[in-house]
C-alpha cells in the first residue's frame, strides 16, 4: 500500500488531471513516484504517462506521441484492475482505451471541442 504522503499525492494529481491540468498532475505524480516503494512505482508511472500523453495532445498537438504514451500507460495500469489507490482502474483502462482508439484514427491537431472526448479519472 502506498504511504500516506504518496496516496495523498495520487489523489491531488487526480484532481488536477480532472481539471485538465495535465502537466501539473504529471509533476505531482512524478514526485509521488520518487517516494513510492519499488512495488508501487509501476502504477504511479502509468499515471505519469497518462498525464504526459494528454499534455502532449492538448498543449503540443503531438497525436502520435500521445497515442504511444497512452498505449504504454494502459499496458501498465491494466495490471491494477479493478481499482488501486482510490482510482477506478477498470474504468480508466476502458475509457482511455476507447479514447486512444479514437485518437489513433484521426489525423489532425487538437481542437478545443476535442476536450469533451477526454475521459476523467474516477
Q: Poorly predicted ranges (pLDDT <50, ≥5 residues)?
A: none
> What's the tally of helices?
5
User: What kind of sheet is the major sheet?
Assistant: none
Q: Helicity range of the residues?
A: 55-70%
Radius of gyration: 13 Å
Distance between the termini: 19 Å
**On the 0-100 scale, what is the average pLDDT?**
93
Strand content range: under 5%
Report the principal-axis shape: globular
Q: Could you state the order of secondary-structure elements as H and E? A: HHHHH
> What assembly state would you assign to the polypeptide chains in this entry?
single chain
Quickly give the structural class. mainly alpha
Q: Let me know the number of strands.
A: 0
Write up what this structure looks like.
The protein has 122 residues and is mostly helical. The chain has five helices and no strands. The chain has helices at 4-18, 22-35, 41-60, 63-78, 89-105. Helix 3 (41-60) packs antiparallel against helix 4 (63-78). It is globular, with a radius of gyration of 13 Å. The model has no long low-confidence stretch (mean pLDDT 93).
